[in-house]
Write a structure and sequence with these properties.
138 residues, 5 helices, 36% helix
Length: 138
């Protein structure tokens, strides 16, 4: 099951695939994804996936672990996923999986002085007021 035996470090007794091989299976004729270092052939499941075929196709040939976990799949979905396992990612390639980059919110340092933060809008307001007054007087 996804998320249980992998976390326990259980040794894999099946076939190992290199990342380069998995990446070749990224089309509708052959769609493989990686979940917790296990390789899943979800080609026959594309039409049946409740979230739509596109969701799986976007992840094809790569690591879908984070997206799979973010969705919060049910126990039934996790059990069903076991039927699609074809192997495991070779231990040497596990470090090659792209880690999601952490998005940090930063504040932009402004070199402009505080007076420009109110002067520019004030001038724009005066111009708009003069234009409005000119328009109304005609």
């Amino acid at each position: 099951m996804v998320g249980s035996s992998e976390a326990g470090g259980e040794a894999w007794r099946g076939r190992y695939y290199r990342l380069e091989e998995v990446q070749k299976h990224n089309n509708s004729q052959s769609t493989w994804i990686i979940l917790h270092h296990r390789i899943y052939d979800v080609t026959k499941f594309l039409d049946e996936h409740p979230g739509g075929e596109e969701v799986l196709r976007e992840q094809a040939g790569g690591d879908a672990t984070e997206n799979f976990e973010d969705v919060g799949h049910s126990t039934d979905a996790r059990t069903l996923s076991e039927t699609f396992i074809v192997g495991e990612l070779h231990p040497d390639d596990r470090g090659k999986l792209q880690k999601p980059t952490e998005t940090l919110i930063t504040t932009v340092q402004s070199n402009s002085s505080s007076w420009s933060n109110w002067v520019i809008p004030a001038i724009a307001a005066i111009i708009v007021a003069l234009m409005y007054r000119s328009y109304m007087s005609e």
